[in-house]
Amino acid sequence: TGDRIGAEEAYRLGLLNQLWPLDGFQDQVRAFAERLASGPPQALAAIKRGIQGATEAALRAALDFEHRTQATLILSDDAREGMQAFLEKRPPAFGAKK
After folding, report:
1. Are 80 and 88 within 8 A, CB to CB?
2. The pLDDT of residue 98 is above 50
3. pLDDT tens digits for 47-80?
4. Nearest residue to 40 via CA among 74, 71, 12
5. CATH 1.10.12.10 domain extents, the chain
6. What are the CA-CA distances from residue 54 to residues 6, 19, 39, 47, 74 (Å)?
């Protein structure tokens, strides 16, 4: 319809997965950014490419991209580190972007 909706309505509809109050908002954003930045760089870069490409690609091309990317990432140092950290019950120490 093109009608504008507020944050609460967007959250209720599932368009947002988190909703933070204005009081402490900057702290929540910073904490979220830090969690995001501590993730596996190769996978995060691939997710970003996938999201950007999905808006332009046909379904078959998007699925092909996902297949190729998954096959590459499962063999990455980040994947090995993530699995090893899980087995050792410790936080992962991901490497630099490649």
Report:
1. no
2. no
3. 888 888 777 778 888 888 889 999 999 999 999 9
4. 74
5. 40-98
6. 26, 26, 22, 10, 21
CATH (residue range 40-98): 1.10.12.10
* Share of the chain residues as helix, strand and coil, in percent rounded to the nearest 5: 60, 0, 40
CB proximity list for 20: less than 8 A, separation 6 or greater: 28, 29
What does the alpha-carbon distance between residue 95 and residue 1 come to, in Å, rounded to a whole number? Answer: 45
Distance of CA 88 to the CA centre of its chain: 23
pLDDT in tens, 4-18: 999 999 999 999 999
Structure confidence at residue 30 (pLDDT): 94
Show the tokens assigned to 73: 């990432």
